[in-house]
Structure formats: structure tokens, C-alpha cells
Specification:
- There is one protein chain.
- With about 120 residues, the chain is α+β, with helices and mostly antiparallel strands.
- It has one domain.
- About 40% of the residues lie in helices and about 25% in strands.
- It is built from four helices and four strands.
- Strands 1-2-4-3 form a four-stranded antiparallel sheet, covered by helices on one side.
- Strand 3 and strand 4 form a beta hairpin.
């Protein structure tokens, strides 16, 4: 049941949120907003994924609560790393949460009723 709810949240954020992206030095800032269930799903999904992204050696991420959702900032830890900066910008909002190797263990843990460290869903 929890995995189903998580996948519904993923769908909600992917298909129903509004995203405004702004290029910043070394990366990208995205304002991700919605109303009702979409806003709730944004907050449940984006914050925990920020924890995982911060474990990646080349990226630095943070979130900030804004009306209707969250602001996600993703930048290269090394601002001179043009390849990483281009990758961050190319992936936009929806790409970074699926980076790294945490996705499969994360979904398996949810299905088993377990929690992964740093994930609140």
C-alpha cells in the first residue's frame, strides 16, 4: 500500500506540478508548485530526494518552501565542472531525483514497510 501511494505521488508530481526553471551559476533553480494533492506530493517527494542527491559527490542541492510547493536548487559542487553543470541543466527538474543508485532499494524498502535513512515517505 505504501509503495502504491509513493508511485501515485511520483505520478502526481511528474504530471500535475508546474515547474519554472531558472539557470543560475553552476546549475539550476526550479520552483515546483501545485495545489491540493499535488502540493502535498511535491513536499513528500522532493525533500527526501534532495537528501539522496546531496550524497552524490558532484552535486549540491537544497530546498526551500514556497507558496504552493518547493524551490529546488541543484548546483555543481565544482563550478568549473562544465559537464556536470550542463547535465544538471539538461536534466531539469524531473531528472535529478532518479540519479544515483538509490531508486530500486528505495522502492523495495517501501514495499517491505521499511524506511531508508533520510526518507520520510
Amino acid at each position: 500500500m505504501r509503495l502504491r501511494q509513493h508511485l501515485i505521488d511520483m505520478n502526481e508530481v511528474t504530471l500535475r506540478s508546474e515547474v519554472k526553471a531558472t539557470v543560475v551559476p553552476s546549475g539550476l533553480v526550479t520552483d515546483v508548485t501545485g495545489s491540493g494533492r499535488t502540493e502535498q506530493a511535491i513536499r513528500r517527494m522532493v525533500v527526501p530526494h534532495t537528501v539522496e542527491l546531496n550524497k552524490m559527490p558532484e552535486w549540491s542541492t537544497q530546498t526551500e518552501v514556497i507558496p504552493g510547493g518547493l524551490r529546488l536548487t541543484v548546483v555543481a559542487k565544482n563550478p568549473d565542472d562544465a559537464k556536470t553543470v550542463a547535465r544538471i541543466r539538461g536534466l531539469g527538474f524531473i531528472g535529478p531525483p532518479v540519479q544515483g543508485a538509490h531508486r530500486q532499494p528505495h522502492h523495495l524498502a517501501i514495499a517491505k514497510g521499511e524506511e531508508l535513512q533520510g526518507h520520510g515517505h
